[in-house]
């Protein structure tokens, strides 16, 4: 259902013109790779050992992949702290209680866990802010339905600017109000966009169900998503914890750094959030959860004997050699910029994946994931130039968990965004409160200055 504007493929003369421009383009923009070393460019904002360049300070969270012993950095089991609290303790401390994600939002934004009475008041505020007017759903969400729900969310969020009486004000008071509204509305925007896609693109029955007061954000997600609105306590709990685990990850991850960069220019909350969603969608960041799912579909179809480690290893090698799956050379769900021996979120998700797999009779699939995780580590370490040990990341098991919860893959990365907007909001407020300078690193010019030639003198 492409628009006429995008139908270059059907217009042969325009296609020829575009091929010509592509050739012109390919003859430029090529920078000698040696120059990066010569000028000591911190590619990817990393030093020569792969460590991130220090570009900011934060109190929101701490991502730890190393221990420092006698001044030396030693790879360690990963740990993650939200406002000083270890996420393992947070997840275990929340236990079977509902509203874990809501407590986490409060913690990230306000620096401490809410007291009983505060949580009640906070839930009341969030419920009030959650509503999307019927007019917005009809005029925005249902229009130009999109197969990629991340892009649909960006469009809806940018349009919310129009519905805000005070969109430009970047005072802390106003940005807090906007942030809470966006956090509360994101689940509705994502799920309704998904239903619009199902209806308008796949000719399935349109389903729009309102969220209900007293239910957690995770419960309302399942209520709005499922045709019968039913879910089990375990399903809601697992989703709640998945949201807690995806809510925040320091200032340096690509989408949160995007929040800092864009916020530092003084722009509005809707622009900043849409930019961060665009970053998170990328397959090397949050979009890896969808890629990992598709990669496993491919592994399941290509590897005949899931117990045969040699066959799996051979397939993984093909991925690394760009001969299999999406030819990017990446094994999705593996590797991390900071973690070395483990990603604590992956460990927790893996334990839920194992429980759910047992419950649903999918032990074989779980065993395949476990095997791929172990073999992929070995293969990446052997075939890539690594500065540190490699481990599975948060995106490795999340798609498997979501599939067992009956969540469609179109919503995998949107679920990440629904959670991570809590962290983006905390970082946006931190950037504004600390009145940072505009973020503006340097780029060295390595081209050649040249004279201007008049049109009829150009060769
Ligand atoms: C929520 C998140 O964002 S978690 C990350 C989700 N992303 C993925 O799962 C995608 C696959 N993983 C990757 O692409 C990477 O591991 C990243 C982007 C997560 C981290 O990248 P980096 O910090 O550059 O990793 P690192 O410095 O350890 O990598 C060293 C080398 O190993 C390669 N490598 C790292 N992970 C992988 C992988 N999963 N598959 C293949 N090669 C890999 C890198 O490409 C790099 O090679 P290069 O120097 O030739 O480019
Ligand atoms: O920290 C990173 O680079 C990526 C990541 O795991 C996240 O954002 O959750």
From TrEMBL:
* Active-site residues, as the UniProt record annotates them: 336, 395
Question: Which biological process, per GO, is one annotated for this protein?
Answer: carbohydrate metabolic process
Keyword Chloroplast assigned to the entry: answer is no
Q: Which UniProt keywords apply?
A: Acyltransferase, Transferase
* Reactions catalysed, as given in the entry: oxaloacetate + acetyl-CoA + H2O = citrate + CoA + H(+)
The reply on keyword Nucleotidyltransferase is no
| Superkingdom per UniProt | Bacteria
Gene Ontology CC entries for this record = cytosol
Q: In which pathway does it act?
A: Carbohydrate metabolism; tricarboxylic acid cycle
Q: Name one GO molecular function term.
A: citrate synthase activity
Family listed: Belongs to the citrate synthase family.
Q: What is this protein called?
A: Citrate synthase
